[in-house]
Design a protein that fits this description.
Blueprint: H1 2-21, E1 28-29, E2 39-44, E3 48-52, H2 62-74, E4 77-80, H3 87-94, E5 117-120, H4 134-139, E6 158-165, E7 173-177, H5 178-183, H6 187-193, E8 197-200, H7 202-207, H8 210-213, E9 227-230, E10 232-234, E11 241-243, E12 250-253, H9 258-271, E13 278-281, E14 288-292, E15 296-300, E16 311-317
This protein binds N-oxalylglycine (OGA) and manganese (II) ion.
């Protein structure tokens, strides 16, 4: 995974300049809803976009919610800027899209608001976590590519993340378009892998950290059984097929011999990390991002977690159904 991370960072730094140079921006004003006028500005190749005209600390009309839901299907990664919201505002907003998950890691839940998962190198006493703490070692695994809660029988529908404190460099979030990555595969390969299933488990996440796996106390997590998901899933609403890859929970391919399965997974992971599938988000304070976990995956770029604070609060919408081929 070190090699993957290196390859990813390498191709990305080259690509970023290209994207900036050829950024295409236009604005489409949409029909005014009851009380607000929302508009959408595409960011990256029909994959991410900014919504303007929202105030997430206010109540939203059902028209606005519907509009956001439509945008979310068109652009799996939505950005809403300048939202100085409280945790309760965030929970209320997220509940417009479904019930919310409680994260299995006890150390990362907000004690006041358990629906808030603290993706943060700062603890609840406002101190930067020690590098050797289990809480930090677990969180550091967000630097690996993953899809949120792929270890659940019904993985999350989508995540909503509020950027509260942002480090001066590093800590960008990469999002990969898993529909485009699937579409780019040769037809025979698409057909072959569409019949396969993958074992996912939460324990596997912990095994991906050298530091965590070698210690006695690995942290406190709710126990979750291993689950089986299709390697190619169909989005329940758009019906588009996408690769369902969450490398930090994928143990093995059910139908293949261990080694053969590993090679296939690694090839697909490598394929789906190419720059043409990836949007890179450089955070500003009070950005709120919402992404559809049913057709994307993401990874955080490393940052100086010893000297700089990065505080992000996540709400996670429970999935609508088990992933289906
Ligand atoms: C997450 C995550 C993204 C980030 O919140 O699910 O993986 O930018 N983190 O911190
Ligand atoms: Mn995540």
């Amino acid at each position: 995974s070190d090699l993957l991370r290196f390859l990813c960072l390498f191709s990305f730094s080259k690509f970023f300049y290209l994207v900036r140079a050829s950024a295409w921006r236009f604005k489409v004003n949409t029909l005014a809803s009851q009380d607000t006028e929302l508009s959408i500005t595409p960011r990256f190749c029909g994959f991410s976009a900014t919504i303007e005209g929202l105030n997430l600390s206010a109540s939203l009309s059902s028209q606005s919610i519907q509009q956001i839901q439509n945008y979310w299907l068109d652009y799996p990664v939505l950005v809403i800027t300048k939202q100085n919201i409280s945790d309760l505002d965030q929970v209320k907003f997220a509940k417009n899209f479904g019930n919310l998950e409680i994260h299995p890691s006890v150390a990362h839940r907000s004690t006041k608001t358990p629906e808030i998962y603290r993706v943060s190198n700062v603890d609840e006493n406002n101190q930067i976590m020690e590098a050797k703490s289990t809480a930090w070692q677990y969180l550091e695994l967000t630097w690996l590519w993953h899809t949120d809660s792929s270890f659940r029988e019904i993985p999350s529908l989508g995540s909503i993340l509020h950027g509260i404190e942002i480090p001066p460099t590093g800590g960008d979030t990469l999002f990969a378009d898993m529909t485009k990555a699937f579409d780019a595969l040769p037809k025979p390969e698409q057909e072959r892998i569409s019949t396969l299933n993958v074992f996912h488990s939460h324990d596997y996440i912990v095994s991906q950290s050298k530091a965590l796996s070698s210690r006695e106390n690995k942290g406190q997590y709710e126990s979750l059984p291993r689950v089986k998901h299709p390697l190619v899933r169909r989005h329940p609403v758009t019906k588009k097929q996408s690769l369902f890859l969450s490398p930090h929970t994928m143990e093995s391919i059910v139908e293949l011999k261990e080694q053969e399965g590993r090679v296939l997974l690694d090839d697909l992971i490598h394929h789906a990390t190419q720059h043409q599938f990836v949007y890179r988000h450089k955070w500003k304070v009070d950005d709120v991002l919402m992404w559809d976990n049913r057709c994307t995956r993401h990874a955080v770029l490393p940052y100086d977690s010893i000297n700089h604070r990065r505080v992000m609060h996540r709400t996670t919408v429970i999935g609508d159904s088990v992933p289906k081929a």
